[in-house]
Every structure is written in structure tokens, then in C-alpha cells.
Amino acid sequence: MSLLQVTGLTARYGDFQALFGVDLTLDAGEAIAIIGANGAGKTTLMRSISGVLRNAPEMIRLNGAPIGALPPDAVVAQGVAMVPEGRRLFASLSVEENLLIGAHGRKDAGYWTLQTVYDLFPILKEKRHVPGVSLSGGQQQMVAIGRALMSNPRVLLCDEISLGLAPVVIRDVYAALPRIRDAGAAVVIVEQDIGQALKVADRVYCMMEGRITLSGRPEDLSRAAIHDAYFGVSA
Amino acid sequence: MMWVDTVVQGILLGGLYALFAAGLSLVFGIMRLVNLAHGDLIVLAAYVILLVVSVLGINPFLAAAIAMPVMFAFGWLLQRVVLNRVLGEDILPPLLVTFGLSIVVQNVLLEGFTADSQRIGAGSLETASVAIGPLTLGVMPLLTFASAIAVIVGLNQLFYRTALGRAFRAVSDDPVTASLMGIKPASVFATATGIAMVVVTIAALYLGMRSNFDPTIGPARLIYAFEAVIIGGLGSLWGTLAGGIVIGVAQTVGAAINPEWQILSGHVAFLIVLLIRPRGLFPRSHD
Amino acid sequence: MSTIVDTRTTASRIAGVCAVLLLAAAIVAPVFVGRGVIQDLFFILTMLTLAQFWNLLAGYGGLVSVGQHAFVGIGAYTLFGAGLLLGLDPVAALLLCGVVAVVIAVPTAFFAFRLQGAYFAIGTWVVAEVVRLSVAQWQALGGGSGTSLPPTARDFAGTAWVARVLDVRDAAARDIVTYWLALALAVATCAGVYALLRSKRGLALAAVRDNVAAAQAVGVDAQRMKWLVFLIAAFGTGIAGGLIYLQKGRISPDAAFSVTDWTAFVIFIVVIGGIGTIEGPIIGVLVFFALQSLLADYGSTYLIVLGALGVVIMLFAPRGLWGLFAARTGIHLFPVRRRLRRTVPRNTQPPGETHG
């Protein structure tokens, strides 16, 4: 049984249908990447899994239990944490308070604490008393990741964590990934940068216009197949 | 000398208005809800205290301590059952629902307690005074002012030193992201309104001990509270105290010139501040 | 294939015919019904006028004012001032009521528009308090305890003629004349608001209400629309206030600036009937009158019921009774939505649904 299983997921905003029957699995300890152009439905998929958008219960299962209809706070309590697109730090909270708020719904202790997050991103310890939103983009992204880790999730959803960051900063952010996986979290990475996604993920799903158009291990996918799945087959 | 006395009385009166305003400011700060029934809820709390005093025959301060959890529960339920349903982008539903609530609360109190003026008896405390230098100050106004400062210090501690306060600020910044952190905005809002009702109870205690009250005086208290919040600048509790003091001093000075001008002078002071500092005396930098 | 823009519906044409018949009946009503009915009708018509203007403000302009009683009181005091101090004929003074209300509305708007969103509401309330407290200082008009219109000032234009033609006492004749004025005012208000909403300005207003930023992006000056609506509402509310107190004949600051009578009731009428529709206030005022007839003897219980009804409707049917009805039947008596009607031949295939 997969840790996270998405089955036939549909989503719509009013008249606009954003997802058409998406299927996806994530095994314990695995890292998968979801790639696709703008508007492919990646963020809608993340919002559905995290509970911001409600679905039919059985469309999303965690360890077999239906979580599709749970509100976001209940989804976090089940062990699915999200690093939202655009980081979305709380403007009136300091760096440390932003991290602490991530532990709000946590019931039992785990690997991730303020101390271990500061070990992962030492710069945050230095800046712990300044407002989170005053940091640089890369540092803010570290706060957002650390904040999600503070709930000790079984599944970490990362939505566009490299967006708007310089390549050298992206490298620093992604350098944290192995340690996050070692600590026990399975990871879903949403990326527009195909190269980055293929480098870090065990498996890749490619989305286009609300559907999964391709999936598999990076080494099994040809450049041409990815190109077609990403941009559509040129007729 | 008379003018110094008038101004000092005004400053102390400002403490009462800051108490009226603190609950309004708290609720607005966290959920952007302007509760038009706020004044009527203060009057409701005063009647709850009065009821406890007359049934149990105890000291008003003790009665207020009993009324606090009752009002907390009332606020929590009100938010949970009614107000959470109308929060959102559209400002119309919350305004109209709280306006309806204001009318309902006023008239329920009229049914239950008639239109007669009431007062919460505080015994010798009502007339006690202390001499500070050349001034003679009433113990009750001093106690009111001290309570206002205590409430503001307490709320600031709650906001900046506790996990609950962190959740308040997070939800205020961004409720959707806060829910991704495991926070339930609906229950945070309910707790916030519950706490606002505890503050309202403290305000009601002094309202009821210092002057007569009847079921119809709520809207005027709402207006004083609102003026204090706007003069102070949204989101700053110390600013709200300053706003309360501006209204209080304007009222006592106005009354010293002509007793009929007391209330009017407070409103005029508000309009002047609005004219020259539209964002209040101590505006918050962001938001 | 071409399209034409149409705002008429079959229901609106039937309603138009009914309205003309109803209006004719209302004009001749004083010949057939007693003075009590005329007074009730006067009450309904003036409340409808106030409700229609508040609906324009809040439902269409997004300006939730809880201080409209300021303009009722200003209108009332202008009427008394003009009658008692200037010796103007009260009927002629009604227009002045509207003008003075607009003059006061300018500084009111100047202050209140500085307050954002919900705080605008309380800001209007503060201004109403300031006006009430100031008027209470006006000793020539009775100060805090108020005054009456002397009989000489109440024999206004038309009453003698009505008394002679309909063979009624002077007091009844005054009621009939004020009733006709109220009828004219209510009809002019409904028609005027309808015309405004169907005009180009009405379209701009709807755009501002739905999305200020988007409206500004297409060149609608949101601030100017807010001013326009606020001043129009003040003008009409001022005239209605003058008319109401012309009929009452006695004034005091607490009554003329009553937040319950002139703001709370008006808000409940609009909310119960359906905010943001022209039909809403009409339905609302009828429900309100029925409730008042049934429950007015119970005093505060009546207000509890009214307040609770307003809350319940806002929670469960925010479009009010008319909104519920229109959603079920699709009937609009005063359609202001523009409907695109395709002028295509019958045999043409309808275009398939497309998604963006």
C-alpha cells in the first residue's frame, strides 16, 4: 500500500475544471516530482492534497485512510505538511515564531525541533528574531520549509520552491532535501525546472492541462517524451 | 489649577473608553470584523454582573470574576454559531448581522430588565478619593485607568508571548496558510471573541459602578470605542489608550466650558483627528 | 449573426402594466378609503423611499451607512426651520430639505470616506450623532425637547382645495396632500433608481461594487461614483425626512434622528426584502408593515423578532425574500442586468460549450 494515493482526482473553480482524473502514488521514503507548464494544474493538485480545496474523501488516501474531504488543519494533523507556493510567511511573526507556528498542530515529538531546523539552516538561527518577511528570498524559502518540517510530516509537499530564486540559492535550498528524506519524510516536489526535478526525484509525473501525461523514473524517460508530455505533441 | 484637574479627570476617563475599545480592537485586528453590537454587549455584561451581585449578594469585583467565564462562553458560541458564517471579503453580511444582533440584545435587555436606570453598587469605593499633590482624584477613576493599563499589558503579553497569540497573529496575516500549519481559524476566531468578551466584562464592571446604565446606552459606548480605536490607529492597543484619552480629555474640557457640550466635544475631537491624521496617531506600518 | 442588448423581460412588461393600474388606484384612493388607511399608506410609501435610497447606497454602491437617520433629521429640521423661521410654504420647503441634506452630506462624505470598509459604517453614525447633538442646541427650534408646527404653518398648498373637493376636515386634508406627495416621491424614487441603474452610470456602479480595482482599470472613477450615490441618497432621504415630519407636525431631536426608526427599520426592510434589487425594498416594506401591524403592541418583542429575522435572513438567504423568489422563478420585475439576445435563425446550431 502506498503512503499517499491519489485516485481519479478532479477539481474545478466554478465553471473552470482544473483537474481531470489525476492518479498518483507516493511510497514511504520516496521523493517524486511533478512537472508541468504554468496552468497545468500542479498547484491545484497541491491545494487539493493539502485540504485547501475539498474533494470526495476517497480521492485522496493516506496509508489507506480517506483524507480527501478533510480541512487543511486535519490534513496536517494526519502528517501531510505543505510548503506553499510563494512561501507565504506570516508578516507579523519573527523567523522563530514562523517556525514555531508550524508545530502548532503537532501532537507528539519527532526528529524536527527548532534545534534540528537551525542545524539544517544555520542562517535562520542568526536571524531568528527578525521578521520572517525581511529575509532574502532564499532564506524565506528556508523558513517556509523549516516551518512545514516542524510538524514532523510523513509527507512534505513543496510547491515551486525554486521559483524566483537565483541558481546558487536554489542549490542551497535543495541541498537540504537528502537530510529531510533521511529524517523520514516522503517528499512531493512541484517544479517548473525539469532538470532540477529529474536530478532529485525517484519518480517524475508530468502534467498538462489538468491531466497526468507521463510518469516514470527519470532514467527511463527520454527527453523527447518529456518534451511532448510537457508542451503537448506537436502535430 | 482647575484646568489641570479637568485634564487629569479626562485622562482617567480615557481609561474607561480604552476598556470599551480594547475588545473591539482585538476582534477587528484578528478577523477584520467590526462588531456593531459591541456597545450592547458591554451593557449586557453590566446586567450579568448586576444579576450576580443581586442574586449572590457579593462584591461587584467578585461578581465580575463570575461573569467573565459566562461572557467568554457567550462570545465563543456567538462567533462559532453566527459570526464565523459571515466572515469574508464582503463587508455587508457581518455589518448587518451584528447590527441585527445589536437591536436584539438591546430589546432582550429591555424585556428582561425594563428601561429603568441601574447601577452596580460599589459601596464606599464610589466616593473614595486620594489626594495626589494639589489634586484630589477619585479612587474609582484611578482604578479604571489602572485596569485599562493592566488589560492592555495583559493582551500584549498574550499576543507576543504565547502560542495562542502567535496563532492570532498568523490567522490575522493569512488564514489559509495558517490552516496549513494545523490552525483551525474558526476556533481561533471563537477564542478571540471569547477573550474580547472577558475584556468587555471588565469594561462593563466600571461602566456599571461609575454611572447609571440602561439597555439603550450601548450604541453610544460603541461609538466612543470606535473613536478611540480610529484615533489611536488600527492595530495598536497603546494607541487605543491614547485615543481613549483624547476623547476623555475633550469631553471633560468641553463639559467644563458648557455641560451640554460634553459628548459633542468628544465627537468633534475625533473628527479633527480624522481630518489631520486619517490613519490615526499611531498607525501600524504594514496592513 | 448579431446580438442586441436587452434588459426587458416578459415579467417586467406585465409588471409595468400592473404598476400603472396600481398607481392610478393609489392616486384616487383618498376618495374611497378612510384617514387611517391613508396614514398607513403614507408610512409605507415614505419607508419605501428611505429603503430604496439605502438600498442604492449599500446594495448598489457598497456604502453601508448606519447614519442615514442624520439626513432624515436634517430634512425634518430644515422643513420646520423654513416653516417657522422663514415662513416658507412647507410643500415648497421640501426641495430645500433635499438641498440642505446634500450640503451636510458633502462634509459627511469627506470624513466618512476616509474610513475604510466597515469603519465607514460607524463613521456615518458618528456624524449623525454630531448633527443630532448640534441640532439639540438650536433653541429657536425647541432645543432638546423639540417643537410643533403651528396651525398657520400647516395650512400648506392644496389642503384647502382638498378639504373642499373631498369634503373632509383640514387635518384629514393635510394627510391626503402629504400622502400624494409621498406617493409621488416613492414613485419618482423607484423610477429614478431604476433609470440610474439602467444608465451607463449604473453599469459603472455595478462594476465598482463588484470589483473596485477592475472598474478603475477600465476607466471608471470609483471615488466619483461613491460621491454621486452618497449625495443622491442624502438628497432623497432629506426630502423624505421633511415630508415625514410635515405629516407628523411635531419634532424633537431624539425622534427625528432616531437610529431605530430611520436606520434600523430601513435596513431590515431592505435585508428582508432583498438587498441589491429594486423589488427587495418593495417586498420588504410590505413584510415590515405586516409585522408591525401584528406585533407593534408587543413593543420590544417586536424589535427582537425583527432583529432576529434580519440576522437569520442574512445568514441563510442573504439575497432576501425577493432573491429567493427570483432564484426559483427567474422573474425580474425591474431587470437591470443586460441580457444578450441572439438574433439567429431557428435552424442554426447553438454554439457548443467551450472552456478556457
TrEMBL record, chain A:
Alphabetized InterPro entries for the sequence: AAA+_ATPase, ABC_transporter-like_ATP-bd, ABC_transporter-like_CS, BCAA_Transport_ATP-bd_LivF, P-loop_NTPase
Molecular function in Gene Ontology: ATP binding; ATP hydrolysis activity; branched-chain amino acid transmembrane transporter activity
Tree of life domain: Bacteria
One Pfam family per UniProt: ABC_tran
Keyword ATP-binding annotated: yes
Family the UniProt entry places it in: Belongs to the ABC transporter superfamily.
Organism: Loktanella fryxellensis
Database matches in PANTHER family: HIGH-AFFINITY BRANCHED-CHAIN AMINO ACID TRANSPORT ATP-BINDING PROTEIN (PTHR43820:SF5), HIGH-AFFINITY BRANCHED-CHAIN AMINO ACID TRANSPORT ATP-BINDING PROTEIN LIVF (PTHR43820)
CDD domains linked to this entry: ABC_TM1139_LivF_branched
Keyword presence, Transferase: no
GO terms for biological process, alphabetical: L-amino acid transport
Keywords tagged on the record: Amino-acid transport, ATP-binding, Nucleotide-binding, Transport
Protein known as: Amino acid/amide ABC transporter ATP-binding protein 2, HAAT family
Domain ABC transporter: 4-234
UniProtKB/TrEMBL annotation, chain B:
Membrane topology according to the record: Multi-pass membrane protein
UniProt KW keywords: Amino-acid transport, Cell membrane, Membrane, Transmembrane, Transmembrane helix, Transport
Compartments where located: Cell membrane
Single biological process term from Gene Ontology: amino acid transport
Any one Gene Ontology cellular component term annotated for this protein: plasma membrane
GO MF assignments: transmembrane transporter activity
Transmembrane domains' residue ranges: 6-29, 41-71, 91-110, 131-155, 188-209, 221-249, 261-277
Location (main, coarse): membrane
InterPro entries: ABC_transp_permease (IPR001851), BCAA_transport_permease (IPR052157)
Protein family according to the UniProt entry: Belongs to the binding-protein-dependent transport system permease family. LivHM subfamily.
Protein name: Amino acid/amide ABC transporter membrane protein 1, HAAT family
Organism: Loktanella fryxellensis
Automatic annotation (TrEMBL), chain C:
Keywords tagged on the record: Cell membrane, Membrane, Transmembrane, Transmembrane helix
The protein, known as: Amino acid/amide ABC transporter membrane protein 2, HAAT family
PANTHER family named among the record's database cross-references: ABC TRANSPORTER ATP-BINDING PROTEIN, HIGH-AFFINITY BRANCHED-CHAIN AMINO ACID TRANSPORT SYSTEM PERMEASE
Annotated organism of origin: Loktanella fryxellensis
Top-level taxon of the source organism: Bacteria
Places the protein is found: Cell membrane
Gene Ontology MF terms: branched-chain amino acid transmembrane transporter activity
GO CC annotation: plasma membrane
Major localization listed first in the record, in broad terms: membrane
InterPro entries: ABC_transp_permease, LivM-like
Membrane topology: Multi-pass membrane protein
Keyword Repeat: no
Pfam families noted in UniProt: BPD_transp_2
TM region(s), chain numbering: 14-34, 41-60, 66-86, 93-113, 176-197, 227-246, 266-291, 303-325
